[in-house]
UniProtKB/TrEMBL annotation:
This is YqgE/AlgH family protein. InterPro entries: AlgH-like. It holds the Pfam family DUF179. SUPFAM superfamilies: VC0467-like. It comes from the Bacteria. It comes from Autumnicola musiva.
Length: 186
C-alpha cells in the first residue's frame, strides 16, 4: 500500500493499535485543514448522547451531535454540503464545506430548509501542531486515506465507518474488523 501524505479533505483512520486512546480509538477523522503550521479535523464516527435541540433549545430538531475531537469541546462546529445556502463557508474538498454563517444555519433549520442529511454538527475538533501529526504518522497511529465517500460523509452511518475502512484496507487490517474494542476482552 502506498502511504499518502495528509492533505485537506483526506481521512485519518486510527490504527487498531491505538486502542488505549479514549479520544481516537477506532476514529475516522476528516482533515478540514492541513498546512505547514498544523492540522484541524473532525471525528466523523463518535456520537454524543444529546442532540442539537439539547444545546440550542430554539432549534427543535433532534439532529445528532458528534464528538469532533478533544480540542475546544465547548464550541459547536459543522460541515455541510450546501454552500449556496450558508454564506462564508469554506470548501474542504469534494463538495464538503466547513462552517459559515451560523445565523443563516439556524434560520434554515427553523424554516425546515436544512435537513440533517445536509449538515453534520460537532462539539470540539481534533488539532495537531506543525509536526505533531507527522510524528503520529511516523509512530503508526494513523493511516491516511483519500475520501471516497465525497459528500456522503454527512449521511454515512457512523457505527460501521471504522470497520468498513479496515475492510477496505484489507490484509493485516482484516483481523481487526470483528475484534472487540479492547483486545483484552477477546
Amino acid at each position: 500500500m502506498i502511504a499518502l501524505k495528509p492533505a485537506k479533505g483526506h481521512l485519518l483512520v486510527a490504527e487498531p493499535t491505538i486502542f488505549g486512546d479514549v479520544a481516537f480509538n477506532r476514529s475516522v477523522v476528516l482533515l478540514a485543514n492541513h498546512s505547514d503550521t498544523g492540522s484541524v479535523g473532525f471525528i466523523l464516527n463518535k456520537i454524543h448522547e444529546f442532540t442539537l435541540r439539547d444545546l440550542i433549545p430554539e432549534l427543535q430538531v433532534p439532529y445528532k451531535i458528534y464528538n469532533g475531537g478533544p480540542v475546544e469541546q465547548d464550541n459547536l462546529y459543522f460541515i455541510h454540503k450546501v454552500p449556496e445556502l450558508i454564506p462564508d463557508s469554506v470548501e474542504i474538498a469534494s463538495g464538503i464545506y466547513w462552517g459559515g454563517n451560523f445565523e443563516a444555519v439556524k434560520e434554515l433549520i427553523i424554516k425546515g430548509l436544512l435537513p440533517e442529511n445536509q449538515i453534520k454538527f460537532f462539539l470540539g475538533y481534533s488539532g495537531w501542531d506543525a509536526d505533531q501529526l507527522n510524528a503520529e504518522l511516523d509512530s503508526h497511529s494513523w493511516i491516511v486515506t483519500t475520501n471516497e465517500e465525497s459528500t456522503n460523509l454527512i449521511e454515512r452511518p457512523y457505527r460501521s465507518f471504522w470497520k468498513d475502512k479496515m475492510l477496505q484496507l484489507g490484509g493485516e487490517y482484516l483481523l481487526w474488523c470483528n475484534a472487540p474494542e479492547n483486545p483484552s476482552y477477546n
